[in-house]
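User: My instructor asked us to take a sequence, write out its structure as tokens, and then describe one feature of it. I'm not sure where to start. Here is the sequence I was given:
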Amino acid sequence: MRKKTLTVFVTLVLLVLLGCKQTQKVSENSNPEPITEFDSSTQIAIEEAITKDGISSILKYLSSDELEGRKTGSEGIDKAADYIQIILRKSGVKPFFETYRDSFQVKDMAGFNVVGLVEGTDSSLKDEYIIIGAHYDHVGIVEPVEGDSIANGANDNAAGTTAVLKLAAYFAENPPKRSILFTLFSAEELGLVGAKHLAERLEKEAIDLYVMFNIEMVGIPMMDKDYLVYLTGYERSNFAEKFNEYSNNQVLGFLPQAKEYQLFKRSDNYPFFERFNVPAQTISSFDFTNYEYYHHVNDEFEEMDLDHLENVIESLIPGLTAMANSPEKEIKMHTK
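Assistant: Let's start with the prediction itself. The structure tokens for your sequence are:
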């Protein structure tokens, strides 16, 4: 009797181990089902993926003195691009082109965007693309202030770059139905040159672009607002309305100064709007009153609010996920 029991037990153990191996093989070689609804377990997964320590390490390096302000054409921005490529590769994000670097010339200098891909899981919708982008360049060495001449660009725009990299890692683990390009632009500070180059290149390749979602200066919170970040070109589309509906939260809002200063045309979203005539808009939490170190040597890591940045990244995921999984293109330009 004991021998028979032992035989049954061993058989059960072998079956369990075999099942574990098969499960592991399936998970390694197939895409998981896209998340379509957010329950408590999904929220826990988001919070585990987006940690303050992970955000801190990326943001601290990108805004470090070692990169000397990440000016286009400099050794510092070359190091930044290498670092971004490493993060994308470790996260399981593939290069969209032959390599991660999308090269161009600007003022006799070599510039390069960094472009990664998370391919969609749906056989039809994966041919539709969402771009999630941010510029990673800054202004480099500037007039010294108390002996410091490195404009580190923590808020502008290491914070936005960090957000894109953490979103890329999340979606690589949780691929949606549509494909997502994660784009880090250079030469934004020289007139949106990197974004113009990539928009032209993607237009020539005739990609089906659904939405371009750009992230700019999100390292510090706004005060006395009932939303988390504002959306440039707010009135041009139903982007904010649908995104907040997807998120079940007031994530995106309207800032009058954004319209007054024509911010819709002043960031990397605009070349994609010009080329594709689709919703291409930027989010930000810099409202001209809450941060005094724009293009300043004091735009440093220590000035950033990591709790706020973590909250921004986590709060974007439900809206972006629903956008990437909706059966139809629900975000549309307003017709005049």
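For the description part of your assignment, you could build on this observation: The chain has one domain: 37-325. Try explaining in your own words what that tells you about the chain.
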